Amino acid sequence: MKTELDAARDLSAQIAGAIRDAIVAGQLIVDERLPSESELADKFGVSRPTVREALKRLAAQSLIRTQRGASGGAFVNRLRYEEAYGQQITTSTLLLSMNAVSFETACEARYALERACAPLAAQRRSADHLAAMRAEIHRQGQPGLSDESFCASDVAFHRALVDAAENPVLSYHLAGAVEAMQPLMNMITFTARDRTEIIARHGALADALEARDAAAAEAALQALCAYTIRLGRDVAAKRTRRTQEA
Amino acid sequence: MKTELDAARDLSAQIAGAIRDAIVAGQLIVDERLPSESELADKFGVSRPTVREALKRLAAQSLIRTQRGASGGAFVNRLRYEEAYGQQITTSTLLLSMNAVSFETACEARYALERACAPLAAQRRSADHLAAMRAEIHRQGQPGLSDESFCASDVAFHRALVDAAENPVLSYHLAGAVEAMQPLMNMITFTARDRTEIIARHGALADALEARDAAAAEAALQALCAYTIRLGRDVAAKRTRRTQEA
DNA sequence: AGAAATCATTTGTCAGACATTTAAATGTAT
DNA sequence: ATACATTTAAATGTCTGACAAATGATTTCT
């Protein structure tokens, strides 16, 4: 039934797959202890190092955690949003850098996704969310702020927007999209005028949420998207010109 | 600088982290070969099994691939969308099941995200995308279709919608959201009337895309979302009633 | 009874060996 | 000289056995 597919894979990959399937299928529930490495080795007919490699694969995906000592072992891990965020961000970042995704494509995706949050955020935003956004806007206006810090604050601002939608599933999916943009954004040099423009848009967005005006929020995001893509185009154009000169 | 954080982790986790950082930072480029396991063992001052565990961790995240034989070894893997999809879907599915996310929350997130695709899909949809959607609609209308197949077709329909936006980054982020809903959807029993209703909405959505009418597409999605959440509520209500009876 | 010491279990790590795969080098025959 | 077969070397895959370290349970001593 499975030998055709499995034959091509390492034993540790097969074992990891079998255990993962059991977890996904709910045969192993959260916090349940797996058999010890020796027992697993016997069960699968392999040596302990092979079992360990399989377990490390699962640990890398946060599917299990291990504990040493008596009554230790490998336990099915409750996948928390915070852990999933990290992996999601790493994967998204690498996807962008390794596949030479254009700034425009990534930017379009990011703002499209944020736009999805706008109506919910307008409806549910708390005073805390608004305060967080205003704080970042203030930060972005401070003189002497490095481009990198400006980008970091931009990310924090947008994450506050996403969190304002009060939907953890949405926050999870957007974490990657928002954070993965940061390396791309860091390639942009923001002039004082650029910053003023962006800060104004952020202000408009915060105002819209405060007024619970979904349409205005979407419009602000749309404008922000267009402006950011324009900035990206300028950078690309400058680089092309420089390359041609050289 | 790092010893405080590293001290708590296994050697294999530290080594995997070091290599991962090098990949993310671009110090190791795609298709570049890592030193052999023996060389890595020397370099990090650990044994080969420990290095292997570290490499398996990275392999589990598709960051590297290994090849046997002469001139084999571990190579930095180009993270492809297809591979990333799979991990994304597994993670999303587990996040939903392990954190007892309500059907409503997941559904809301999914449709909010799809709504983000609607304007782009309306603008860029090709004849192929439309054909794929129509085909799934036709499939959904066939008598004798199991609930499971109906759900699978629903997923295929929505993925066609997402792909119609012609933005791979968007497709990637939505893959998890759409696919992870399937197990939750499978818990619903669709009556003939439910199906008729859903198929009508799907038809309206396809019509809107064909007419390149973004607003109509968003409206259709909104309606579909509301209807699906209602179905979920009914199921939950029935289950509660049954539990109380018992 | 309470604290200390011991024990048993389990993961973490190491060393060395052999099996298997694969590409390159070598040799051979046409 | 080219084409094919053979050998070789390098690398990963796997196994065995061992010891270290952590940790909860047990026993012992006060």
Task: Please write out the topology.
The structure is a homodimer of 246-residue chains.
Chain A: H1 3-6, H2 11-24, H3 37-44, H4 48-60, E1 64-67, E2 73-76, H5 81-98, H6 103-124, H7 127-141, H8 147-164, H9 168-185, H10 192-210, H11 214-245
Antiparallel strand pairs in A: 1-2
Helix pairs in contact in A: 2-4, 3-4, 5-9, 6-8, 6-9, 6-11, 7-8, 7-10, 8-9, 10-11
Chain A binds a DNA duplex (30 and 30 nucleotides) through residues 10-12, 36-38, 46-50, 52-53, 66-74.
Summarize the model shown:
2 copies of one chain form a homodimer. Chain A has 11 helices and 2 strands; from the N terminus they run H-H-H-H-E-E-H-H-H-H-H-H-H.
Would you give an account of this structure?
Chain A has 246 residues and is mainly alpha-helical. Chain A folds into two domains: 3-76, Winged helix-like DNA-binding domain superfamily/Winged helix DNA-binding domain (Arc Repressor Mutant, subunit A), CATH 1.10.10; 81-245, GntR ligand-binding domain-like (Four Helix Bundle (Hemerythrin (Met), subunit A), Up-down Bundle). The first copy, chain A, has eleven helices and two strands; from the N terminus they run H-H-H-H-E-E-H-H-H-H-H-H-H. The first copy, chain A, has helices at 3-6, 11-24, 37-44, 48-60, 81-98, 103-124, 127-141, 147-164, 168-185, 192-210, 214-245; strands spanning 64-67, 73-76. In chain A, strands 1-2 form a two-stranded antiparallel ribbon. Chain A is elongated and about 65 Å long. The mean pLDDT of chain A is 91. Chains A and B meet through helix 2, helix 4, helix 5, helix 6 and helix 9 of A and helix 2, helix 4, helix 5, helix 6 and helix 9 of B. Chain A binds a DNA duplex (30 and 30 nucleotides) through helix 4.
